[in-house]
Amino acid sequence: MSTLIKSLAGLGLGAALTLTAGTSMAASCGTFTNADGVVEDLACSSAPIDFTNKGSLQNGAKTFMNYCAGCHSAEYVRHSRIAKDLEIPPELVEKYLMVTTDQIGDHINAEIDQEVQASWFGAAPPDLSLETRLRGDDWVYTYLLSFYEDPSRPWGANNLVLKNAAMPHVLHNMQEELSAEEFESEVGDLVNFMAWMAEPVRHDRQVIGFFVILFLLVLLIPVYLLNKEFWKDVK
Ligand code: HEC
Questions:
Q1: Are residues 175 and 235 in the same domain?
Q2: Does residue 121 lie within any of the structural domains?
Q3: Which residue range is the domain that position 229 belongs to?
């Protein structure tokens, strides 16, 4: 019996150690071959997600509509929801952010023709509404920062995270014009916006979750005392 308990405890400890090791390691965003020809893991960079920073979300929305909505759809996102959640006056959304429609209630680019695009690029640009939930915020952030020049590719660019990506390096001009930090911050805002698109209530959910757990912990005290009171004569 005692050996059984020992081995069970050992298993538990082993599992706990594996779990902590797993979480402390940076997730991998693919592999690349370094200058010496050795294949290395590419660690994901961590995306600066902050839904309370409306300026960042607004800037991300601007970048998304100007640089991405030309090819990608985000068919679960309405322009009117952007106006409401990101606190942008609807007139400004209509004037500057509606590049593919003139109805503020419309979804972003929902009518996009996947087949035509696939014939242009070799692969159709996927819908990006839920992209950060599919791949993770950090994957998308690292992907957008990992384009490099590669003359062998049709658009002259390749990507470390998604090898031989069919997508051109659409932020190339922006990257040329800005310093490395400024470019990272622009891409950070863009991914922040994409994370908002994928789950607009994410921040509220986390805040509510915190208070629910807090409430349950506080409730534990009277419940424990009541339990003691109810059982005191029975024992
Ligand atoms: C010229 C058209 C075009 C534009 C503009 C464009 N993309 Fe793409 N994108 C593509 C294509 C094509 C693919 C498919 C790549 C593949 O599968 O090889 C793609 C793939 C992606 C993927 C990877 C999807 C996956 O999970 O495999 C992400 C993320 C992405 N694009 C984000 C963006 C963002 C953000 C922007 C705006 C900064 C943008 N794209 C602008 C054409 C475009």
A1: no
A2: yes
A3: 209-235
Instruction: Please list every protein residue whose CB sits less than 6 Å from any atom of ligand 1.
Output: 67-68, 70-72, 121, 123, 125-126, 128, 131, 135, 140, 143-144, 162, 165-168, 170-171, 190
What pLDDT score does 212 carry? 98
For the chain, what is the domain count? 2
Are 98 and 32 contained in the same domain? yes
- C-alpha 166 – ligand 1 centre gap (Å): 8
Q: Over the stretch 132-184, which tens digit does the pLDDT of each residue have?
A: 999 999 999 999 999 999 999 999 999 999 999 999 999 999 999 999 999 99
Q: Is residue 17 part of a domain?
A: no
pLDDT digits (tens, 9 = 90+) for 113-133: 888 999 998 899 999 999 999
Establish if 161 belongs to a structural domain.
Answer: yes
User: Quick one: 215 and 100 in the same domain?
Assistant: no
Instruction: Tell the residue number behind the tokens 């839904």, with chain if given.
Output: 51
The helix (run of H) or strand (run of E) holding residue 152 is none
Helix or strand (DSSP H, E) at 147: strand 147-149
The one-character DSSP state at 207 is H
How much distance in Å is there from the Cα of 168 to the middle of ligand 1?
Answer: 8
Task: Report H helices in 67-153.
Answer: 79-85, 90-92, 114-121, 131-135, 137-145
- Residue 136, domain CATH: 1.10.760.10
Quote the pLDDT of residue 6. 52
